[in-house]
Specification:
The complex is a heterotrimer of chains A (243), B (221) and C (68). With 221 residues, chain B is mainly alpha-helical. Helices cover 86% and strands 0% of the residues of chain B. Chain B has one domain (2-220). Chain B has nine helices and no strands. The model of chain B has no long low-confidence stretch (mean pLDDT 87). With 68 residues, chain C is mainly α. The relative contact order of chain C is 0.06. Classes of the chains: A mainly alpha (243), B mainly alpha (221), C mainly alpha (68). The interface between A and C is medium-sized, with 39 and 31 residues.
């Protein structure tokens, strides 16, 4: 395990590997998005209850999946950074955070656009939307703490502590919000579970999920490359001043 | 152990001598809670309905205002470095400071709650459970707050960042705390809520001193 | 033409379906563009420093690479 990690720990090698993956990730993203959008907008049938609004699900649910899995990925990456002093780990968590925040925001916006025809109002304190909102706050806090330190290696460690505490808290928050929602359930509110998952809906959903994942990978590679080169730039500038 | 209690006593003494901070937090709590009837209207049944939530949110915000007191003063005059170099492990040192913060900043809030609860038309059963829930749940506020305070210690504009970091993590305490009081008012069993709060407190007691100590090492190194 | 209209109408829910796809596209495209521009900017700033460092290395005896 240690050997494997050290292979990727070298930032130059990391950059080489990601640069090799990058074109493939971009191509796969475009293909999956094309297929996914075709399936979502043309091939999938309208739901007998929700009509065409069910099509919002194909951009809402994958965004919510990404929002959560990116936070988990950041927590794992930060733990790696704290335990093994892996030099790329903090930077990769930092690179992932804005992408996660964007997906969370999208899940919120599409969720409320879905809510208007379903519930008759743009915002309902539905358990999932509420936990998404809290997750969005966690992302904002994470990005804010990176911006508040001058010393980037300190910022990385502080952000890692924060994201780990947050990751322990996320299941508790999720549980408490679900539970709060069952206590305060208004009478005539449809749940966001949507219709029974039928294969005609599941296939486009999964394809869109995969497309979002590979889109994340593509943007992530661009951002993590910028972070690594940015650190190199700071070091070189420092060396330049000292000469 | 002696050093541990000495540190707690030192912090309490400092807080008591600096009495103004005490009274300011309490006044903030009272003023913030008073704003609700003025904003929502004085109908007694509406106040009774929102009372538990108002008191918990008020306590959360008041506690938030006091968090920078845990480490900031000691960081500025250099005694934090001294404490971290001392023989007491940093985790225990942090825990002692957290306990002192809870005793000096949060317990006064709990003591004044009954008066505010009466003004919000809360029934007597609810008031006792409100105090019990605060007593069991509020250590989480100090514990999680200490992590945020440790991360932002020494920052110029730490206060706003601190609230952004800490408030989302307070949500479970808020939910279970309010639920306990509402259950008691509705004459339902409130045991599970109190136990959940206690569980949160114990979990935070294990994790937060370690995380806060790690954050302090970063700030001081 | 009527099928296109029907498609855009989305069974009466077009006002909700299309904005949600539009917002998703807009935000993700903005994210991609901003990320690429950020990367290009850093690469541009890094270039003179790297060439500078290489040329100096050639002149001097390489004394311990402190960078990375």
């Amino acid at each position: 395990m240690a050997v494997d990690l050290h292979k990727f720990a070298n930032p130059a090698r990391f950059l080489r590997i990601t640069s090799a993956i990058f074109p493939w990730a971009a191509i796969v993203t475009v293909l999956l998005l094309a297929v996914g959008l075709y399936l979502a907008l043309f091939a999938s049938p309208e739901d007998y209850q929700q009509g065409a609004t069910v099509r919002i699900m194909f951009v809402h649910v994958p965004a919510a999946w990404m929002a959560m899995s990116i936070y988990v990925m950041m927590a794992i990456s930060s733990a790696t950074g704290l335990i093994w002093k892996h030099p790329v780990a903090d930077l990769s968590a930092k690179a992932a955070a804005p992408i996660g925040a964007c997906f969370t925001f999208l899940a919120l916006v599409t969720g409320s656009l879905w809510g208007q025809p379903m519930w008759g109002t743009f915002w309902v304190w539905d358990a999932r939307l509420t936990s998404m909102l809290i997750l969005f706050f966690l992302y904002l806090g994470y990005m804010a703490i990176w911006g508040s330190f001058d010393d980037q290696s300190k910022a990385g460690k502080a952000a890692a502590i924060l994201v780990l505490i947050g990751a322990i808290n996320v299941p508790i928050i999720k549980f408490s919000v679900d539970w709060w929602n069952t206590l305060h359930q208004p009478a005539s509110v449809a749940t966001m579970d949507g219709p029974k998952i039928h294969s005609s809906i599941l296939t486009p959903l999964l394809v869109m999920g995969l497309a979002y994942t590979s889109l994340f990978l593509t943007i992530f590679i661009i951002r993590v490359k910028a972070e690594i080169l940015g650190r190199r730039l700071r070091i070189l500038r420092l060396a330049h001043v000292e000469d | 152990m002696n050093k541990f209690t000495n540190l707690i006593i030192r912090d309490i003494r400092l807080a008591v001598r600096q009495g103004s901070a005490f009274t300011m937090t309490l006044s903030f709590f009272v003023v913030a809670v008073t704003l609700y009837p003025l904003g929502v209207g004085p109908e007694l049944n509406i106040l009774a309905r929102i009372g538990p939530g108002v008191l918990w949110v008020g306590a959360l915000l008041s506690c938030l205002l006091t968090l920078d007191r845990i480490f900031q003063a000691d960081f500025e005059d250099g005694s934090l470095d001294q404490l971290m170099l001392g023989s007491l492990p940093i985790e225990l040192m942090t825990l002692a400071k957290i306990i002192a913060h809870w005793l000096t900043s949060v317990v006064p809030l709990i003591l004044i709650t009954p008066i505010l609860a009466v003004s919000l038309n809360m029934p007597a059963d609810g008031i006792w459970v409100m105090m019990l829930a605060l007593l069991v749940g509020s250590p989480v506020l100090s514990l999680i707050g200490a992590v945020g305070a440790g991360l932002t210690v020494g920052m110029r504009r730490g206060g706003v960042l601190l609230s952004l970091l800490v408030l989302p993590l307070y949500i479970p305490v808020l939910i279970f705390g309010v639920a306990a009081v509402e259950a008691a008012i509705a004459v339902l069993p409130m045991g599970p809520h109190i136990l959940l709060l206690a569980g949160l407190s114990l979990g935070a007691l294990v994790i937060c001193p370690i995380a806060a100590a790690a954050a302090l090492r970063l700030a001081v190194e | 033409m009527s099928t296109l209209n029907e498609f855009l109408n989305m069974g009466g829910y077009g006002a909700f379906v299309w904005p949600s796809y539009g917002v998703s596209a807009l935000i993700l495209i903005c994210l991609i563009v901003l990320s690429i521009r950020h990367l290009r900017k850093i690469e541009r700033e890094l270039k003179p420093l790297e060439t500078d460092r290489k040329s100096r290395r050639r002149r001097k005896v390489p004394t311990g690479d402190t960078v990375q």
